[in-house]
Amino acid sequence: MTMIFGIPLQALLGQLLVGLINGSFYAMLSLGLAVIFGLLRVINFAHGAQYMLGAFVALLMLKFAGIGYWGALVLAPLVVGAMGAFVERTMLSRLYKLDHLYGLLFTFGLALTIEGTFRYFFGASGQPYSTPAALSGGVNLGFMFLPIYRGWVVVASMVICLGVWFLIEKTKLGAYLRAATENPVLVQSFGINVPLLLTLTYGLGAGLAGLAGVLAAPIYQVSPLMGSNIIIIVFAVVVVGGMGSILGAIITGYMLGIAEGLTKVFYPEASNIVIFVIMAIVLILRPAGLFGKDA
Amino acid sequence: MSHSTHTQADVPTRTLALAGPIKAAILIGALAFLLVAPFLLYPIFLMKLLCFALFAAAFNLLLGYTGLLSFGHATFFGGAAYFTAHAVKVWGWPPEFGLLLGVAGAAGLGVIMGAIAIRRQGIYFAMITLALSQMFFFFCLQAGFTHGEDGIQSVPRGHLLGVIDLSNSTNLYFTVLGVFLIGMALIWRFVNSPFGMILKSIRENEARAISLGYSVARYKLGAFVMSAALTGLAGGMKALVFQFATLTDVGWQMSGEVILMTLLGGIGTLIGPVFGAGLVVSLQNYLATSNVPVTIITGVVFMTCVLLFRRGLVGEFYASRLGRMLGFNPER
Amino acid sequence: MSGPLLNVAGLHAWYGESHVLHGVDLHVNEGEMICILGRNGMGKTTTLRTIMGILRKRQGSITFAGKDMMGVPLHRSARAGLGFVPEERGIFATLTVEENLTLPPVVAPGGMTVAEIYELFPNLSERRRSPGTKLSGGEQQMLAMARILRTGARCLLLDEPTEGLAPVIIQAIGEVLRKLKARGMTVVLVEQNFRFASKVADRFYLMDHGRMTAEFPVADLPARMDLLNRELGV
Hints:
By secondary structure, chain A is mainly alpha-helical. Chain A has eleven helices and four strands.
């Protein structure tokens, strides 16, 4: 049995995989947060709740409509995104002219409401969601055993992240978004419906969170608490990465997930706070964040 | 936090000539009520109210007067509760020293959290305090002296100054009332001091304060630590009143609760958080026996307040006709 | 269509509580280039922003191509045919030159194609993949004008295009404006550099404290020099 730093190779690689998977979710969620913040200047505290919503929509669609994983992967983000767009249009948009902290407080209240509602109907414990047949089982790579679904999550998250990056950096719609981030009034004077753009952006962010939730369902159980558990970590990820760049958010998410996984191997007691510790260190040394543009 | 736009009464309202005496009468009436209250209402409930009122008022020092939103004040509240509980139960300290330890511990945590969080502003500051607070939560989950999920139970109330038996609810009530009044007096003094004035100018125009030569970071940190220390006072008291300290006290939901109390009562008013705390604690009490989910109500009230009711109860009163006639100046 | 392309009557506007335009009257005929002159702070930029609809607290009448513009939301003004080039140019740093150029959507036929724009402004063609703000001040001004030209807008609201630019660039901008005029573009120019304006504009307005105090064609310019010397200190 090969050993590295006194740890069996299998265990190390196993934890690295877990770290990579967690990192996939950190990346997807901090990406959504960064997209929303970039244009709306709102920290979407409800992002975790929207992630949880995605998982629950998948679960409920299976239970009541017989729609399986693949259908949920398409429909759940649409449902969550639509709900998000509705909230933005009717309520959140009224807060833009105020201090940005009100947006944070509003989405905090929204998160509590969503989580409370699901807790009321489903209790606090998690429910299982089975891995789709096409992705179950595993493959033996020689140095470790890789469950196929885990591999799928990592690949899918990278594709999603790159897809969003492409959308924002390389498409016309992305150009509208980037320009509106800099000077919304001027962009509106060109004839672009910026308020609609804001609604779509929030919907996109919420939908991204929902998509992450569907991906998460077979791995972590579907529980009303899954959102609040992860959102605080994602905040820390976002602070470490800085809100300046999309790629920065993605890279930081993966990196911190892997860091967490490694800590679990070498110093397990610290694994649930290592990301916060890294955040504190980064703040002391480089307050703008690793990829941040504003200090 | 910046101003809300309202066009109420563009015509200035004349302050009543009797405004001063009326306000004094209200204050005396309130104090009188507080003195007789334990004979009318359940003392433990009243003490809970006073603890959270002080908590919210201390929190408002940071949010309303300095303009900094902290999402991590549970660390100071619950941390002090743990410190006081441990000192009184395990080391056998008298309650007043236990409280002092709670305050000192909270202040120390405040220095650490503040020094790190102040490096960023606004939204980032809030997120950092949340993350650091969560870090402290996990620490409390695993540390020995906190006893994890069980918490520290059966905290003895002891004898104040060696003579006053605090296991008597009435004695304890008046002690808590005394501490509350001292705390409020300290806050009032602080807000009206030169230090407080500078904080106000930083909140309104930080760039200008910097250009005037003020070391803004130091002032913010000072306000942060002051707020943390007074929060610790409330937390330590709470440990003595309820005789336990648990993880709930250091969780992010607790941080959210105190924000709600302050928002509901009135950010930037001295007495607003007291009312907000009173309302939230009473509501929780009322709902505890029913089946209604508290989290949902909390969330909905939060959203409603932010959308429609930003000045909070007391803020709205100050801005109303009656409030202006009585000479209350709305902060914004 | 008879009558002026753009007609503004009795226009009042407010920044918050501050009353900044006190009944502005102006009109522009199709194909004409008018220039609003005046000292700093007199309301010239405000007039353009109010006509465009950026400043919403307004009263009075704004008619463009026969259409009442007062109720039109900001993101529809462009569709009516108005194009705004702000004083600060508004080139986006996170977009390339070409992305900046193609950002404003085409609102009507008759605008220049990208190829035509690159012919008119060869510098922009060379730097098409650079970030927008890497251009010099003069090039950014060209870009700010060029992107509106692509849209097919019928009337250009140009705010101080020559501000802060070297004389050589100012000449080049003058050339561009002359070419635009030849194509029949209607322009409302705000300028402090009245020497530049005198070479391109057909008619002048003089603005003082939020209202128009004088109006005269370019032919009358010599006769009005005294007035302009007094008002503008030229």
